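Dear colleague,

As promised, here are the two records you asked about, laid out in our usual form so they can be pasted straight into your sheet.

NAME FIELD: protein one
SEQUENCE, THEN STRUCTURE:
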Amino acid sequence: MVGSGNTGLYGPKPTEEPPAMSALIRQIRYLLAPIAVLGLLAMMVAMRPLPSTMERVLTRGELIVVSRQSPTTWYKDQHGDTGLDYELVRGFADELGVTLKIISADSIAEAYELLDSGDADVAAAGLAITAQRSLDFRFSSAYQNIQDVLIQRQGESRPNTLEDLAERRIVVLEGSGQEEQLRQLRAKGFNVVYESVNGSSAERLLTLVDEGYFDFALVDSNSWSIHRALFPELRRGMDVGEQSIGWAFAGGDDTLRLSAERYLTRKKADGTVAKLEDRFFGHLNQFNIYSARSFLQHLDDRLPQYADAFREAAKEYNFDWRLLAAMGYQESLWNADAVSPTGVRGLMMLTNHTASEMGVADRTDPMASIRAGAAYLRKIYDRIPARIPEQDRTWLAIAAYNVGFGHMEDARVLTQKQGGNPDSWQDVKKRLPLLRNASFYRATRHGYARGGMQSVIYVRHIRRYYDLLVWANNSERHSQLVALAD
């Protein structure tokens, strides 16, 4: 039966829209379509994961590290930026294939602020891994363990227990692991009285004790090792605790921290960290109170007479003037009239042969002696293979200056035969003393070397004097030297 009206075979026909209404709907749909597309794109962007910290570093092509300028972490020497933390983070950046950018913080608090704000990817500044800090930041595993040590004036009674610290005045760096250590002691009921100094340095804390403002400074053992020669009237007292040192990372994903973790684990396992510790701290314990006092005295009354000569010679032969000055101090204590039992003489203690080779008629002429010493070191340095990296090349050259280039080459050959690295001073210095042993020197080209161990000590002392001269540039105690170095 055929339907009629609005009734069709399958029910009522839909009501047709008026033409004007249809046009309006089409127009609205046309206007809303871009908004819908934008909304969909926004949803897609929102659903896409944010780049990880590692991806941001790799995309940027730069690892940004915040540190504090300190002889224990990051400073400048004759070859530019160096320091234990600097060398480690530079190696990490190299491994990632990115450039390294170091930004400086004036205090520990500022280092954490720069990290928290995202202005830095990593904080590498000799930072102690503490329970309080770990609430806000993530840390790598420790790459160093150091002691918290009390430093006091010579001749004063040494505390033996924490109870002995009652009512004694202690100064500590604000925001440091040592401050947290003291805060924890207070919480445990120990009567410790301390004052925190913001934005300072270990040297400033030691100065405050040296000048009698406080009974003790609580510093880490690395800082004391570095600065002890500048403070011969101070001594190490009781150890208060131990700290683990690591790199700090801001919150968020762990991609960069885990990569750093793997890197540091490898560097500890392959001996890199131990070599860096030896490089920066291994030569420091050879400086006793008497040599420290002597150095400080001569720093004030002798070096100013020859500083310009060292600087001129250094500029002519492309060395750091402080390196030449350190050699001069080791040779003669900056004494132009010095004479050794073997006949070498003058400020740089030239032999007759070396003086003649360098064109020096009067070895007691300090200016001529300094220039000849610099020229002779340059001659030796240029013979050391250029592939050898710094600072190894410098220390090998200085050892050769003392023991002779031929004996140095014999020690390098022996190092290679024994499976060591002939381009590493750390490896070669272990073989130099063997050249006194017939079972070793008979197989060498230049034979017996009397001064092998002496040369190792020679380099060690020069490294120490050089470090002191470098650090004294920023020292509050030696403004005269600062003026000379500017």
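NAME FIELD: protein two
SEQUENCE, THEN STRUCTURE:
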Amino acid sequence: MNYFTTLKHYNTLSEYYKSKYQTKVFKIALNGNFTCPNKDGTVGYGGCTFCSSLGSGDFAGAKDLPIKEQFETIKTMMLKKWPEGYYIAYFQANTNTHGPLSKLKKLFEEVLTLDKKIIGLSIATRPDCLPKEVLDYLNELNKKIPLQVELGLQTIHDKTSILINRLHSLACFDEAVLNLKARNIEVVAHIINGLPLETKAMMVATVKHLNTLPIDGLKIHMLHIMKKTKMGHDYLKKPFSLLSLEEYVETVVLQLRNLRSDIIIHRLTGDAPKKLLIAPKWTLKKFVVANEIDKIMRANNYYQGDLYEETDA
């Protein structure tokens, strides 16, 4: 089913939830104090070169606070804007299946008891952190509440993955998607545009590969060069080319047009903490970015999937 509107020529998450729940649905970003296998030595050290020392999920709750306190604090703030909204508890920071199964069960089961208006659980993780015992537990969890797993891919290109110290293969990502979907778990893929040395064609190729997989949703981000990252350190020593706002918009429009029309768009751009962002500064204006994408789609009567061909998949 498509959730296009006259203003949005692609499947927006807000329209999808509005159709499903007849009200606003928002995520409450939580920090379960997980680490990352790419930082603690499980697969490597230092993390992805773009990742800050704070880890992913810079806007999630404070890791030193109990989950219930994090939840209530963020919920209270969000309800001021959407008093009738429902919530998705979102374990955002770092790799949220990288830990003992007992820890996963404790955190995820606890959050389900916090509020009757929680209508879903979202877990961000890496594809190399889904062993069978975790997959089987997520399968059981999905029977209690709608479960969504957000999987970081970033790029399909090996050369880029090595450059950014990603330390998992494309085959690993593909297998993780298939394992999750075999258990009827919703999968949202995460990609980054503007990674070093990638061309527009390479970024579109990443989206075309996702067409071959049974993913349900997609998050598209622009690369942020941030303080307290290896990439930020390297950039300050020797700046390299970054996408301009116009180039980013043009790339995302082309990605949307090549993307299967059933995939829900969870995000078209991201934002980094202003105090940490080195470049590009235009990413701070995420609403401007989204508006520019919408304007081009409308002006040219472009739609998500209008360039998609089944042969691509």
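A couple of things worth noting about protein two: The mean pLDDT is 93. The two ends are 19 Å apart (CA to CA).

Best,
R.
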